Automatic annotation (TrEMBL):
Lineage of the organism: Eukaryota, Viridiplantae, Streptophyta, Embryophyta, Tracheophyta
Enzyme class: transferase
Organism of derivation: Manihot esculenta
Cofactor list: pyridoxal 5'-phosphate
Pathways per UniProt: Amino-acid biosynthesis; L-proline biosynthesis; L-glutamate 5-semialdehyde from L-ornithine: step 1/1
CDD domains named among the record's database cross-references: OAT_like (cd00610)
Catalytic activity annotation: a 2-oxocarboxylate + L-ornithine = L-glutamate 5-semialdehyde + an L-alpha-amino acid
PROSITE patterns, sorted: AA_TRANSFER_CLASS_3
Entry annotated with the keyword Transferase: yes
Stated family: Belongs to the class-III pyridoxal-phosphate-dependent aminotransferase family.
A GO MF label: identical protein binding
Keywords linked to the UniProt accession: Aminotransferase, Pyridoxal phosphate, Transferase
Protein name: Ornithine aminotransferase
Length: 473
């Protein structure tokens, strides 16, 4: 284990010593520090539950990031869509500062003067009767699952302890025990059993099998949980008409349609909600990430009274959920999205980014298998055979050297999801950097291919036997 640690430390040290172009002066007031020292401290004293790209964020503004040494980068991840409005948006920061000087926490044991305003603001904006506030996205999903089960017992008369939630293979809803119990991600599930019962899986986009499940087990099914566009799976867009078909099936079989819009919502895809692309209204909507403007964790579950009032006092709660600081920030975050037309901006810039990425694909058809996206929610999938032995993570390391910060998902996919406030020129820098990596860096990296090596095989789910994120083209 000691040798393994030394090997990783050597790798991190080498990465941080690489000669890098200075992408801009460090903002005034920033104290220099060693990136390598900070990475080493985190490795030594923090759990190893992430595999970050080796860059230390020290300061950020809009779409720009600075590390402790003063190097400037462009953010093409947006903290998984948590900073749709851009880093440290002045209106959101002002709301944070003003509220922090007055009141930060009351708990829901008492009323405060911010949460009722936020609740009215959010429900009016999205057209639902009520909201249940939480903090993180994972808490929002857990809340929706509990709400659906409670509704199933009280309103649908499902027999005690027999409620079922159906979810999609490949959808990502968090890392809590209840959520991974619905997961087909082997890394998330191995070693964490026993998993919770009461879940069924269906392939994303397959309404035929979904109806079959509803017909066979409909009396027990309380809800169908899904992402309108699968993010962690690699920005997988469902077939046209799928969301409408799901809405019709849920209505026909009296099943709650539960949309996880934590990452896809709040203007990311070019609409306020991704479900808006098919003009579909779910029974339950889960929001998070950009609801806190990249400043503070805020999540929320939206539903009408016939669903929401199934939960009574004492049955679910959160000390910090609906706190005045989060409520003030969330109001400002929503106002920025609306006032700055970020949904429309995402739609327009998304078309531009898609055009740029398709041009890169045309120039490197052997490397790029597919470009897909909606709004500024995009992904580039590489051909595993021609990319090997290079991985999507390696591509992201080279993008970082050229001043672009992106994160891979699986071995062959890179997501490109910049803040919705990004400029057109900055957007072009991202696609230009990708072009340069494929033209100049990738051929050199592939020359190191081991003679007897072969591309990684398919990933078979331990639980359902499905071929997940197949890497063989």
């Amino acid at each position: 284990m000691a040798s393994s640690r030394r090997s990783l430390q050597c790798l991190l040290s080498r990465v941080c010593r690489e000669t890098r172009r200075n992408y801009g002066a460090l903002p005034e007031g920033t104290t220099p520090s060693s990136s390598q020292q900070l990475i080493s401290l985190e490795y030594e004293f923090s759990a190893h539950n992430y595999h970050p790209v080796p860059i230390v964020f020290s300061q950020a503004k809009g779409s720009s990031i600075w590390d402790p040494e003063g190097n400037k980068y462009l953010d093409f991840l947006s903290a998984y869509s948590a900073v749709n409005q851009g880093h440290c948006h002045p209106k959101i920061m002002k709301a944070l500062q003003d509220q922090a000087e007055k009141l930060t926490l009351s708990s829901r044991a008492f009323y405060n003067d911010r949460f009722p305003i936020f609740a009215e603001h959010l429900t009016s904006m999205f057209g639902y009767d009520m909201v249940l506030p939480m903090n993180t996205g994972a808490e929002g999903v857990e809340t929706a699952l509990k709400l659906a089960r409670k509704w199933g017992y009280e309103k649908k008369n499902i027999p005690k302890d027999e409620a079922i939630i159906v979810s999609c293979c490949g959808c990502f809803h968090g890392r809590t025990l209840a959520v991974i119990s619905m997961s087909c991600d082997n890394e998330a599930t191995r070693g964490f059993g026993p998993l919770l019962p009461g879940h069924l899986k269906v392939d994303f986009g397959d309404e035929v099998t979904l109806e079959k499940i509803f017909k066979e087990r409909g009396d027990q099914i309380a809800g169908f949980l899904f992402e309108p566009i699968q993010g962690e799976a690699g920005v997988i867009i469902p077939p046209d008409g799928y969301l409408k078909a799901v809405r019709q099936l849920c209505s026909k079989y009296n099943v709650l349609m539960i949309a996880d819009e934590i990452q896809t919502g709040l203007a990311r895809t070019g609409k306020m909600l991704a479900c808006d692309w098919e003009q579909v209204r779910p029974d339950v909507v889960i929001l998070g990430k950009a609801l806190g403007g990249g400043v503070i964790p805020v999540s929320a579950v939206l539903a009408d009274k016939d669903v929401m009032l199934c939960i009574q006092p004492g049955e679910h709660g959160s000390t910090f959920g609906g706190n005045p600081l989060a409520s003030a920030v969330a109001i400002a975050s929503l106002d920025v999205i609306k006032d700055e037309g970020l949904a429309e901006r995402s739609a327009n810039l998304g078309k531009e980014l898609m055009d740029q990425l398709l041009k890169v694909q045309q120039q490197f058809p052997d490397y790029i298998k597919e470009v897909r996206g909606r709004g500024l929610f995009n992904a580039v999938e590489f051909n595993s055979k021609t990319l090997f032995p290079v991985s999507a993570y390696d591509i992201c390391l080279k993008l970082k050297e050229r001043g672009i910060l992106a994160k891979p998902t699986h071995d062959t996919i890179v997501r490109l999801t910049p803040p919705l406030s990004i400029s057109l020129d900055e957007l072009r820098e991202g696609s230009k950097a990708l072009h340069e990596v494929l033209e100049h860096d990738l051929p050199n990296m592939r020359k190191a291919k081991p003679e007897k090596a072969s591309p990684p095989g398919s990933t078979i789910c331990d639980r359902c036997g499905r071929n997940l994120y197949a890497s063989c083209d």
